[in-house]
Design goal:
Blueprint: E1 9-12, E2 15-22, E3 30-35, E4 38-43, E5 47-50, E6 53-60, E7 65-69, E8 72-73, E9 82-86, E10 89-97, E11 107-113, E12 116-120, E13 123-127, E14 130-141, E15 145-152, E16 166-167, E17 175-176, E18 190-193, E19 199-202
Antiparallel strand pairs: 1-2, 2-3, 3-12, 4-11, 5-6, 6-7, 7-8, 9-10, 10-11, 12-13, 13-14, 14-15, 16-17, 18-19
Length: about 210
Amino acid sequence: SWLDLETADLTIMGKTYYILDTNAPATNTSLTLLDSAEDTILAEGETATVAGHEVSINFIDSDEVILTIDGVNTNSLNEGETQKIATETYVGVKDILLGSRDTDVGKVELSIGKGKMVHTDEEDVEINDEDLEGLSVEITAAVDLAGLTLVWDTDEDSFVTPDSSLTIPGFETVKLSFTGMVYPANEELLLENNGDENIVLNDFPLK
């Protein structure tokens, strides 16, 4: 079901993404994905290396956490929220595990990925907090996610020539190219006079 999508993997255009968050059960129209994500469960007092970054917990309560990543504290993050920590690198909070504050050690399940992508029905795809103009998404969903369709529509006239190709933005997995025309033999057509008012194409190969 849509509610079970969080923490699952989703393959789009041959690349695998980690579903960090959805807007279920509100409208079932949006997915937040992390590319090449690595995740871990981290307890207070521990330090872990996640995707090459040193991570520890600075503060945690039942609904928010502040992480220390490579010596720098994040904002206060709720479950499903993300923050950019380096160039095209995001940390996402998957789950905050905390019972009685007097007895339990706080734990957080987190993920660090090389890019954040947001798919919202009938809107442009968003990559690393910027809209990707020309590439939108259509999501078909009720209780389950039934389909996700990418719509590639350039705003201006675009041409494919032997010297110019088109590549789908964001994913870079689909490329339209043209190698030129090949003519195995030359054709010669004669333009001839056919009386005082007409001309004709002699031997025109009309089929």
